[in-house]
């Protein structure tokens, strides 16, 4: 018989290319994805600017000055001033604070809520799953902006309310992706293997289902932060989000809209800041997803 | 079976009465309620007999191969043995107690009976390192003290022929053969006395198969494991297993010592398998002409009568059960090909 002739080797030859490839890939990711790297630098700049806003901004963002109203960009005010004489550069820098805080916090609310509902729906089955999914479906039928408007109507205005409203409006999409991932993970062999080992159910969920769901969720979070920022800015733009004189980009764009023909910088500067951040964040999110999503690499 | 008991060493047999086999299946039946094909919108279901009158006895220290065409019910039989599925009829016993009860009673069954999945990669959590994967059963069953887990993992890796630094890798970075080794190491971690494996070497190239088989055979001997091994491959069965059980359409149609059964098959189906697979280490080709009947619509009388070259008129009337055939063999045929003394 063939098997007798071939003795088992003491050790196995080193792994194929896939083993070392993963490690090598991580190191050179920044070089392989120049757009990602640039977008990451831009995003980090925003984050640093937001954190150290009081140090970076040349003026107090809400300090009004009758002497310097609606000035075009000059040396003293690099991005000009608005109709109250507030320095736009300072307001844009502080605006990053609000945008990022609202974005992160509301996405966190959406992700945690989505994780709970999605896990419950994906693991329960039966009528509970049916009820949860109908709930999610009815929520999903509305775009998140409309939904956020509805929540604002109930909650009222203010930064905290915006965070909650936008966060609630994002639970639906998050639940859906979490549930899809849970359904996919729970039928996998390693879940049955854990069950076979008589590991208690909740421990299996905690140790094997959750980690395999959390990671795609984290990727989703990075992608959806820009959506949350956009929705919150839209709320402010509509005049139902944060209240003046908070240096919020949406609010600044709305204020500048009336003067766009003779003071275009008032709306353009915060608009540009918003657009650049959104683009940078979505490139970063996409890059992370493509790089780390195990689905794209499975079957190796 | 009893002729093998002599080779079984003492430690494992002490804790159970010598008479109770590890597994005993008595007239086990597993019927799945399925919606028949072309049933349209109707919700009516029919019974699919995945297992039908299965008799099997697995003694301590034996290695037994389960062989049969695709759809013959091998995996279903395994799931019944592991207590994952409850049989719909008959009795499935583990050391004399119903398997489902033994499993429900605590961790002892799970610790004692370990499984190597056919889809070894899928049975390993992709987000855990090899070390964490092997440490999981060590921790779960309190096999060793906390501070000795690392050392034991290294020992197990060495036992299955993997380098120690494989512990830091993830399953995605390992080759097919290495993944099987990890799955085997993980199964061995709980210090089981029974190892159950579903197609543990199929889908690998011949030399990797040979290495794994050598490993499994060594483990079986050194640790005195009871081995239940599903395979498509008669060569693998005869290399690794003392005994063989051949399945056809949900029933074991012949059992006995592997070399005896393969050299002188008594059941026409075993003979057909043997004739169709003259070379070892090759997957089983279609052993017989003619369609395998649907398990939804079993033929009357002997289930093999539609394809049996040795069929007689009475084969369509009586359904042969697996019955004794000489000292160590059993066959489910009205007109066996050889006589019991063979
Ligand atoms: N959960 C189930 N529900 C309905 N039918 C099932 C189920 N599991 C198995 N079957 C049916 O039972 C029969 C035996 O299946 P089983 O998977 O045990 O075969 P097998 O011998 O393992 O085949 P293979 O070699 O392809 O793995 C098949 O006809 C299959 O369709
Ligand atoms: S009982 Fe008859 S049909 Fe069935 S296997 Fe034996 S000879 Fe063939
Ligand atoms: Mg199978």
UniProtKB/TrEMBL annotation, chain A:
One Pfam family, short name: OppC_N
Compartments it resides in: Cell membrane
Protein's name according to its UniProt entry: Peptide ABC transporter permease
GO cellular component: plasma membrane
InterPro entries: BP-dependent_transpt_permease, MetI-like, MetI-like_sf, OppC_N
GO BP terms, alphabetized: peptide transport; protein transport; transmembrane transport
Family: Belongs to the binding-protein-dependent transport system permease family.
Region (Disordered): 1-25
Nucleus keyword on record: no
Phylogenetic lineage: Bacteria, Pseudomonadati, Pseudomonadota, Alphaproteobacteria, Rhodobacterales
ABC transmembrane type-1 domain span: 96-285
UniProt cross-references to SUPFAM superfamilies, sorted A to Z: MetI-like
From TrEMBL, chain B:
GO molecular function: ATP binding; ATP hydrolysis activity
Protein name (database record): ABC transporter
Domain of life: Bacteria
Species per Swiss-Prot/TrEMBL record: Puniceibacterium antarcticum
Major location category of this protein: membrane
UniProt xrefs under Pfam families: ABC_tran (PF00005), oligo_HPY (PF08352)
Cellular location(s): Cell inner membrane
One GO CC term on file: plasma membrane
Keywords, comma-separated and alphabetical: ATP-binding, Nucleotide-binding, Transport
InterPro entries named among the record's database cross-references: AAA+_ATPase, ABC_transp_ATP-bind, ABC_transporter-like_ATP-bd, Oligopep_ABC_C, P-loop_NTPase
Topological type in the membrane: Peripheral membrane protein
Similarity section: Belongs to the ABC transporter superfamily.
GO biological process: peptide transport; transmembrane transport
PROSITE patterns tied to this protein: ABC_TRANSPORTER_2
Taxonomic lineage: Bacteria, Pseudomonadati, Pseudomonadota, Alphaproteobacteria, Rhodobacterales
Domain ABC transporter, residue spans: 26-274
